Amino acid sequence: MATPRKRNAGRSDGTEYHFKIDAYSPATMPMGRLAQYMAELAVLFGERDSVHFRSLTKGSTVLNARIDREAAPKVRDRVVAVRAGDASGDPLRAFHALNKLLRADNATGVLRDAAPRGVVVRFPGRELSEEKFTIKQQGSIDGIVTGIRGKDKSIHITLQSESQQISGCEATRAVAKQLGAKLFEPVRLFGRGRWSRDADGTWTLEHFRVESFEALQDASLTDALAILRHIPTEWGDDAYKELTEMRKGPGGNKNGGH
C-alpha cells in the first residue's frame, strides 16, 4: 500500500504571506509599531475576515499571515496589482503607508507569497527620495477666517477649512483690514501661492500671498443643493457628487486650495 506523500511545509497555494522588515527583531519591535504594520498590511490584503496573523519569525522581523483558501485568489489579485503598480484605492494607500512606516524606521520591506515562484512585492522604505516637488501659481483658498495678526507690512491670516487649520497666508494691511470685518465668516482668498508635494503624494500649502477676497455664503453643500433643487431643471441622482467635484476637484481638495 502506497504511503500518502506529505505536503511540503514550505509550499503554499497562495494562502501564506511573509512580510519581512529589515529593522528590529521580534524581541525589540515595539508592540504599537507592530500593530501599525499589521493594520496597514491587512488593508493591503483586503478580505479582512479571511486574513489571520500566524506568527513572527526570528532574525529580522518577519510577519507571517495566513489567508483562508476561498479568499486567496482575491488577495493574490490585490498583491499582484500592487507589484505591477496598477493598484488604486485602499491597496495603494496601504502600500504608501507601509513605505512611510519603513522609512521612519530606516528600513526596507519585502512581501512574499510562500508559493513556489510566488508574488514578491518590494517596499523601498528608507530608499525613497525625500525630495519635494514645489509649484507656484495663482489660486484660491476657501475657509473661515480665524485669525489676523501682525504689525509690519505683511499681516498673517489663518483659516479653518473643514477640519484643517491653514496658516502661511499673508496680506497687506489694506486687505487685512477688510478681512477683519469677516472674522469667523467664510471667505475665498485669491492670490499667488506655493504648494509642495512629498514622496507620498500629499500636497501642502507653504505660503499664500492674498491679493483679494470675496465673502461666501455660510451654508452647507446639502443646504445649497436643497435650494438649487427648487430651480426648474433636471437633477440626477449624482448631482451631489458632481457639485462636490466642481467645488473641490476630483477626490476632494484636502488643504482648501484650488
Can you offer a commentary on this structure?
Helix 1 runs antiparallel to helix 3. The protein has helices at 31-45, 72-84, 89-104, 173-180, 221-228, 239-248, and strands at residues 16-21, 51-57, 61-67, 109-113, 120-123, 133-149, 155-161, 164-171, 186-197, 203-215. The longest helix has 16 residues, at 89-104. The strands form two sheets. The chain has a five-stranded antiparallel beta sheet. It is elongated and about 70 Å long. It has six helices and ten strands. It is α+β, with helices and mostly antiparallel strands and 258 residues long. It has two domains: 16-127; 133-219, Nucleic acid-binding proteins (OB fold (Dihydrolipoamide Acetyltransferase, E2P)), CATH 2.40.50.
Name the helicity range: 25-40%
Across the major sheet, the strand order is 2-3-1-4-5
What about the largest sheet?
5 strands, antiparallel
**Integer average pLDDT:** 82
**Helix count?**
6
Distance between the termini: 76 Å
Based on CA atoms alone, the radius of gyration comes out at 25 Å
State which percent range the strand residues make up: 25-35%
Report low-confidence residues grouped into runs of 5 or more: 1-11, 249-254
Structural class: alpha+beta
Number of strands: 10
